[in-house]
Design goal:
about 190 residues; mainly alpha; two-stranded antiparallel ribbon; 6 helices
Length: about 190
């Protein structure tokens, strides 16, 4: 009983820390002098943890830094484990892999949904004859479209066709991967 209570308290501490981490990440999106003090205080608490993940270059895409995602995934795993232990459940290697896979798929699905949304906006603007500027995201969308079209053997293509093919391909891939990961996570959680 003492162990379960300790795990319960630890779960709540980790959940609170996760909230602080989330607020810190959101505050970095705003450049407002009025937020400098809260950023400084939160940074003192969560930056030592975040700094452990900032060195991974493969988590950076131009000006976008996805290193906090890895920090959230591992913190989420710790929360899930302590929560299971607090509830008196056993923690198996299958459950650990299922939680990790679920969190990784959650990030990948979010990223794919974001790309799908941007491609829809890009397509509507293209069909209306407008050229929208999304900064570095334009380059990302062009690279994605080029790679998808290259899979289909198209080196030269009309942009509208490229956007539509990319959109449909990524949408189908998103749905199939969702089912595949769902099945795999379910299977692993039973090990």
């Amino acid at each position: 009983m003492i162990f379960q209570n300790t795990m319960f308290v630890l779960t709540k501490i980790l959940q609170f820390y996760s909230l602080l981490l989330f607020i810190r990440v959101i505050l970095t999106w705003f450049n407002n002098p009025a937020l400098d003090k809260p950023k400084q205080y939160l940074g003192a608490v969560v930056d030592p943890y975040l700094d452990k993940f900032r060195g991974f270059e493969w988590l950076r895409f131009g000006m976008l830094d996805f290193s906090p995602v890895l920090a959230f995934i591992l913190l989420g795993l710790a929360i899930h484990i302590t929560s299971a232990l607090a509830a008196g459940q056993s923690v198996t290697i299958g459950l650990v892999f299922a939680v990790l896979l679920n969190d990784i798929w959650g990030f990948a699905a979010f990223f794919m949904n974001l790309i799908i949304l941007m491609l829809i906006v890009f397509l509507v603007a293209n069909l209306m004859g407008r050229n929208i500027m999304l900064g570095g995201l334009n380059n990302l969308l062009y690279r994605i479209t080029d790679r998808v079209m290259a899979i289909f053997g198209q080196q030269s293509y009309h942009m509208t066709k490229g956007i539509i093919v990319s959109l449909v391909t990524i949408l189908i891939l998103r749905i199939l991967l969702g089912y595949g990961f769902g099945w795999l996570i379910h299977f692993l959680s039973r090990l």
